[in-house]
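Dear all,

This email documents one entry for the complex benchmark we are building for the journal club exercise. For each entry we list the sequence lines for every component of the assembly. Then comes the predicted three-dimensional structure of the complex as a token string, followed by one or two observations. Please use this as the template for your own entries, and keep the labels exactly as they appear.
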Amino acid sequence: MERSTDSGDLIQGTLEMLVLKALLRGPLHGYGVAEWIEQTSQQVLKVEEGALYPALHRMELRGLLKAKWGASENNRRAKFYELTSEGHRRLNAETQRWARLSSAVAFVMQAS
Amino acid sequence: MVQHLHEFVLRLKALLFKRRLDRDMADELAFHQAMLRDKLLRQGVAPTEVDMETGRRFGRASRWHERLRELWQFRRFENLVRDISFSARVLRKSPGFTVVAILTLALGVGANTTVFSMINGLLLRPLPVPASNQLVVVGTKDSDPQTNYSLSEPMFRGLERRRKVFTHVFAFNHSKMQVKGNNGVENVQGQIVSGDFFPALETAPLLGRTLGPADDVKGGNPAGFGVVISEGFWQRWFNRAPNVIGQKLELDNTLFTVVGVMPKQFIGADPLDHPDLFVSMASEPAIHGTRSLTVAGFHAWWLTVMARMNPQATLEQANADVSANSSAILHEVIPDANWIAKREQRHFRFTAEAGSKGFTYIRLFFTKPLMAVFAMCGGILLLACLNLASLLMARGTARQKELATRLAMGATRRRLVQQLLVESFLIAVAGTAAGLVISPLISQAISALLLGGQYETHLDTSLDLRVFAFAALAAIGAALLIGLIPALRATSGNLSDQMKHGQHTTLAYEQQAVLPRVMMAVEVALALMLVVGAGLLASSLVRLYRSGAGFDPRGVENIAFSMDQQPLKGDALLQFYRQMGEGLSHQPGVKDVSFAWIIPFAHMVWDEDFPAPDGKVHNIYQNSVAPAYFQTMRIPFFSGRDFRWGDSGSSERKIILNQAAAKLLLPDHNAIGQFITKKDGEKTFRYEVIGVVGDAKYEDLRSAAPPTAYVPMCQDDQETRSYNAVLRTGGPAAPLVGAAHALAEQIQPGIPMPEMTAMSDTVRDSMSAERMMALLSVFFAVCALIVTAVGLYGTLAYATERRTIEIGIRMALGARRAQVAGMVFRQNAAVALAGTATGLIAALLASQALAGFLYGTSTRDPWVLAGSIVALALIASAASLLPAVRAAGIEPMQAIRCE
């Protein structure tokens, strides 16, 4: 019932990092987060709704995000997410970790 | 930590505002879908396909909700709630099992809680005074193993002066007092207390002041004797009048002034006494007159002595201090050097024991019986738990398919065990609750049975925190004991095997059958132990009844007159008794009338030392009786003559011996007409033996009849003595006491209402501990038999039901019905046999603990052992017969077809 795989953890962790990054420039609703990630990655990264919303809610529960209801650009009621100071701190840590990890992976892959 | 708190608060909000959370989630998803649809439309996708595309990407909305909501839940908590409601449903579906389970546990927990609440009231609850842990009880010890807790007044004064480790040393003794009111004289429970009694107990009075050292100087406070009254007495006697302080009260014909009122929670230092009046020891000589115990000095041992230690002192220091000073104190306060030498030969010393729970004599008598009963109750609870565990285990086997299916559906074993445990917890909680409800009723019955009539006591068995903690512990223990093993067993094993074989396998039962059988055998063994214990106690009680008292108590009534405080003295008092006896003998139904100073089994002893012709000194019990006493009591007269009213003070001192005394004091002669002598201090008394009577028991029924000498009441040296009229009646006894009072009023007005007791009640009360233990143990044994029968029946019935097909096949192959019945029956017979053998050995070992309670009964009494085994065998057979008969009734075709 409570099974999980290692690869899932990695993806989840990465998604959380991307969400934090998306919210760095200001509050966004869930759709906005997904759109920003897709556009910024030039359609390479597609964010599944089935993963996005559980991640957002989990981060809200952990206090990385703060949620507020407001009006969207087309005047619909929408839930906006915003970084908390804890979220900022986590983003910094994740960014550094990611830089170390990706350069290490690149190093390995370039080895002959 | 902060993060956890944050999470907790959010989840709590989600739990409380569940609706809003659901709506928000729906809104959020709807918004996302709308945005997505707008985008697709902008990209030029056809509207019909837009719906399909969003539907494909999102799936069903309800599944989304489920996933998101799960995040916000307290998973454990909500699982638990679900388990509880599921378990309740499961239990409701089998009401028979549930009711039996709850009742069994209610009985087990109820009985245990009851006895524990009595132990709590008698042994555990501290006195309601500040820092009760500083209190100690002072006793004396010599070569006798039993500590003595009654001290004489000079000893206490010696201790009172020594305060190295103590801040206060105090003494008290209960005393029934006659209070003169407007409507005659009333007997009220009082206590005589020393000067430091109230200062040591540190409880402020409700009104006025308490008694202090200034009230306890010789002759009393110059302002007169003071009395402190209880709140209850203030209410009853003065109707809570605020001006009660300074009012006069006449107690035992002595004038007292009320100086204070103590609040209700103050009960003194004897937790079972609850006196209404407290007077100082200095007033004791005034109220007791010629029979003053203070005046009797070091010969009268009557005071309970306690002390409050310095806050720094330990119990060891206190004990060492009083022990080391024993000799010094004796030499300081006791003028008789011979007496001291005698005591010191026997290593006399003072001791100090923990006294935070106060002191009561009842503890000395009832701690052991109570503990024995507690052990029996524990046995019953264990039995009930074992029984339920085996039933649950049998049920678990029957539910294996359900459990296997749930495992296959993805439930973890932990969750299943949790759910099964929740089931047993529900049973345990319901059983404990039911047990707590019935507990006060049982405890009233038991304490009435235990202390009935013998003492005016107030055993507080109310349910306090300690009792509830005990009940909770019992419930948790019971739940774990009931549920854990069955739950672990039921969820273990190979999943696919169980699915395949399903409900109709015999394999699963055979594999798991060892543990339930062992448990049932243990149950049988426990039941046998309880039955043997009950049998021993009951047969001991019967023997005690049959042993006889040496007199015939049936139809004998005692009427006690309190004459100590009356002006009648000497010959005038004798005349009063004689007239009273004459008057009573004319009452309807009265056959014989006589008087005695001490009535049997009243816990009073008068003994004197008489030398035998060979110079050896014998301790002989004595009593002072009127003519016709032996006839009234139906004590056989062997030779010589009875006393006459004419054997008065002027004639030669007469004495009647019982056989045992005659044999000791005059072994070689015909006793009649011989003289015996007794030395009391400087004086020598010479008695002429005029008769020999049969041996009659004196102190209690358990001890053999002591050598006893009777002297005539007409030659009593005491000026005033309260005698008991002893009447043998054939009619109703109730009107007699009124008649006695009316007669007394005629002869001498102002005599307090006499008290009547039936001799047969006194005899019964003298066996109250034995009676209580026998009754309770029989009750427990019957419970144990019933519980065991239910267990044997239940497990066998389950097991047989699961073997239906196998039995059907056997019968189809030609097995006869009797063979089938025998096969099923044998299954339990083996269990019962193993249990009985184990139980017999255990009972033989454990019954040694009962040896102290038994009268004339060996702990290995073959009749009791054989009877217990037969009883258990009968019960076990009856419980096994029904499933066996049912198995024999199986129709082979139907049984096989149902697969």
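Observations: Helices of chain A lie at 6-22, 30-40, 49-61, 85-110. DSSP finds four helices and three strands in chain A.
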